[in-house]
DNA sequence: TTGTAGGCGTTATCAC
DNA sequence: GTGATAACGCCTACAA
């Protein structure tokens, strides 16, 4: 087992100084051709590669970015993550992934841990608990220390930083409008408890679309499920007792589960009830019937977030005292029509 | 904006030496109560936290582990990743995630990048291309440099290191046996091209089960799909022209897609055809009918891999020259029965 | 052309 | 009790 070799060891072996080795390996013209060749040959032989940690300590750049997401076994976050990773990779950055598990405390701990030099910037989506508590001191402190931060999807107005979101309001509006245009009158909404920012925006879009088309807002058409629901009793009762002809769900899991229950109750999709979900992951594509779904373009979202972050990181290098400017990029959601609505 | 503060700055402000500050913050009894308190108060005020990079340089420990997986938007790998992340978190380790995207080159590059000091050890599943090329020099070199490595799921006998796998052969055998016990006679296998180690083991289990139950191996019952197949023509033809009464699929996507096609062809599930898949992710649970599936227990796999790795990392600290021993942990797959087979 | 010295932030050893 | 010094691995301005 040959441990990684260092400049110092090469220098000792070849009886030259460390700086000579360092320069030779960078093809500095200061060093004679002879020594350069000798050193490079030796270095190659021993697979010399500079130690990232030492480089980071010196340059104050880790080439790592921290990504904190609420959940990894979740199609949307996973696609965003892939977008981030792919873009980061092209720029020579690595991604440190932390899962907050929807917990405020884990989010805080992870952030503080990483903020102490491990990374050059953060990309994150707020945990459910953080949104519920409305406590963002950890984000503010991080920003305050000069650490770039990009929020995506689960964002908040309380924190001033770069953001990437989709137009949730408009997307929901568009989905409901489609249902109305198809002749649906009793359109239900299946959503989460209300503190989740994105769900709330989608609900607003739903309300507005109804209003604009002179449909009354009927509270009995709204089903609010706990975020991580396993239990299907609430849904079963809802579908058994509610008179409806269309359903908008704020994610694809709710949608597919709801479709199953509706089908079990003898409803035909889309003839009796139309369904539209959010997320457009593999579930939407492979459900029976295939689910019409609002595509959130997670991968692009991740890519844009990573681009924004890396730009900021690398710009910070150049002009130290520039006026900070923050942007919010809005990605247009698109409705992917499949079998669960009438085309 | 207050940049992170360092020991040196605290020392200067308080007009003491750096070492005094360092000791005071560690509650060393060498330092007087007065100075200790003064320093700690100041440090707290400025949110002092030691710089991870500097600590790493000194300790030669990064408290990071590198995870290289072929694909992140993939239920099984995602669950393994979660298992790794969760366990790592409890031990104070962070996870750097790289996606090889099934590419040999990306795998090599990522590995070399991380191996230069960024992490303390690797957990990985081989990319498809790596298995196809059968080239493992990058793994061997990494191990040779004293970097601990744990392979999971997509492993190879060519590399000697810790491994975590499921009993693919037995799991497939068990699944086929169940189908046979249910009275199925013409059991098809939907698998990937053969270079994928795990698919091949599953195929072997399928062969053996047939053989042990005196069923002839009929090549026309085997459908080999390209790994990332989007196109459904091959499957359509297969289901349209093949006489079968059961199907074993090596992953849940193949299974759900196949079920859809079979249903479109007028086959009833499970009456006419029974289906069993591998993976047991959300697709299996929410498919119509719900899919009987071999659970691979990805999360546990990740946890065990992380435990093995961290043990090795931390043992390396202690006894430097101990005889290396490597283990292969086998996780028992379990068959989760649902509606796509007869109970 | 080569080498020395200082510094990145920290800890540990040893001297005062 | 407190501080100076060396070291982790690397880079670079400045000497020689």
What fraction strand of chain A? 15-25%
Poorly predicted runs of chain A: none
Given the C-alpha coordinates, what overall shape of chain A results? elongated
Series of secondary-structure elements of chain A, N-terminal to C-terminal = HHHHEHEHEHHEEHEHEHEHEHEHEE
The secondary-structure class of chain A comes to alpha/beta
Helix content of chain A: 40-55%
Number of separate domains of chain A: 3
User: How many strands, which pairing sense, and closed or not: the largest β-sheet of chain A?
Assistant: 6 strands, parallel
Outline the structure in words.
Two copies of one chain form a homodimer. By secondary structure, the first copy, chain A, is of the alpha/beta class. The first copy, chain A, folds into three domains: 7-50, no CATH class; 55-165 and 298-330, Rossmann fold; 168-296, 3-Layer(aba) Sandwich (Rossmann fold), CATH 3.40.50. Chain A has 14 helices and twelve strands. Chain A has helices at 7-14, 18-25, 33-45, 52-59, 75-90, 104-115, 128-133, 137-144, 168-181, 197-212, 233-241, 252-264, 282-286, 298-318; strands spanning 64-69, 94-99, 121-124, 149-152, 162-166, 187-192, 222-225, 246-249, 274-279, 292-295, 328-331, 334-336. In chain A, the strands form two sheets. The first copy, chain A, has a six-stranded parallel β-sheet, sandwiched between helices. A six-stranded mixed β-sheet of chain A has the order 7-6-8-9-10-12, with helices on both faces. In chain A, helix 5 (75-90) links the parallel strand 1 and strand 2 (94-99). In chain A, helix 2 packs across helix 3. The longest helix of chain A has 21 residues, at 298-318. The first copy, chain A, is elongated, with a radius of gyration of 26 Å. Chains A and B meet through helix 4, helix 5, strand 2, helix 6 and helix 12 of A and helix 4, helix 5, strand 2, helix 6 and helix 12 of B. Strand 2 (94-99) of chain A pairs antiparallel with strand 2 of chain B, so a sheet runs across the interface. The first copy, chain A, binds a DNA duplex (16 and 16 nucleotides) through helix 2 and helix 4.
């Amino acid at each position: 087992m040959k441990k990684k070799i260092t400049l110092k060891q090469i220098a000792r072996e070849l009886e030259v100084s460390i700086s000579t080795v360092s320069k030779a390996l960078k093809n500095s013209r200061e060093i004679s051709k002879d020594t350069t060749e000798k050193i490079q040959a030796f270095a190659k032989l021993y697979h010399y590669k500079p130690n990232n940690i030492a480089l980071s300590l010196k340059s104050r750049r880790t080439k790592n970015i921290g990504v904190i997401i609420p959940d990894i076994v979740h199609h949307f976050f996973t696609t965003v993550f892939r977008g981030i990773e792919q873009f980061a990779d092209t720029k020579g950055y690595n991604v440190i992934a932390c899962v907050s598990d929807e917990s405020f405390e884990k989010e805080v701990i992870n952030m503080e841990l990483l903020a102490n030099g491990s990374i050059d910037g953060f990309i994150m989506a707020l945990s459910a608990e953080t949104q519920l508590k409305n406590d963002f001191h950890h984000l503010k402190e991080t920003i305050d220390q000069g650490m770039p931060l990009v929020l995506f999807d689960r964002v908040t107005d309380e924190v001033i930083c770069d953001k990437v979101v989709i137009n949730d309001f408009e997307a929901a509006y568009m989905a409901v409008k489609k249902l109305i245009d198809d002749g649906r009158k009793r359109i239900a909404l299946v959503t989460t408890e209300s503190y989740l920012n994105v769900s709330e925006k989608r609900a607003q879009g739903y309300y507005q679309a109804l209003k604009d088309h002179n449909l009354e807002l009927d509270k009995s058409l709204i089903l609010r499920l706990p975020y991580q629901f396993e239990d299907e009793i609430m849904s079963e009762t809802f579908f058994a007792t509610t008179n409806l002809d269309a359903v908008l769900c704020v994610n694809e899991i709710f949608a597919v589960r709801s479709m199953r229950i509706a089908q079990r109750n003898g409803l035909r999709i889309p003839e009796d009830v139309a369904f539209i979900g959010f997320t457009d992951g593999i579930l939407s594509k492979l459900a029976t019937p295939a689910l019409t779904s609002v595509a959130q373009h997670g991968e692009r979202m991740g890519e844009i977030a990573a681009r924004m972050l890396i730009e900021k990181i690398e710009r910070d290098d150049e002009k130290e005292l520039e006026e900070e400017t923050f942007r919010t990029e809005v990605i247009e959601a698109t409705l992917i029509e499949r079998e669960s609505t009438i085309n």
